[in-house]
Amino acid sequence: MEYDVGDIIEYNTFGGGSRRVAVTNREPDVKNGRPGFDGIMSTPEGTVSVWGYDDQIVRVVKKEADV
Fold first, then answer.
1. What is the DSSP letter of 32?
2. Which neighbouring-strand residues pair with 34?
């Protein structure tokens, strides 16, 4: 899936849920030699830093140019 830093993406978590996050960084090896991303997610308590693998991404919700 094509996405860039600044985009808002939705991805599936390993626990079976999904999250929407703003991508802050792309990594060729985010963990275990697999490509992925770092991002921030808003919660009622504030923002949380998260990461995920590229193959977990379900869709790009908003491209940076659209934000």
1. T
2. 31
* Report field, pTM of the whole predicted structure over 0.85: yes
Q: How far apart are CA 29 and CA 34, in angstroms?
A: 5
Q: Which amino acid is at 50?
A: V
CB 4 within 8 A of CB 63: yes
Q: Give the model confidence (pLDDT) of 2-15 as tens digits.
A: 999 999 999 999 98
How far is the C-alpha of 1 from the C-alpha of 61, rounded, in Å?
Answer: 12
Q: DSSP secondary-structure letter at 6?
A: T
* Alpha-carbon dihedral sign for residues 46, 52, 55, 60: positive
Looking up tokens 């919700």, which residue turns up? 61
**Integer Cα distance of 40 and 50 in angstroms:** 6
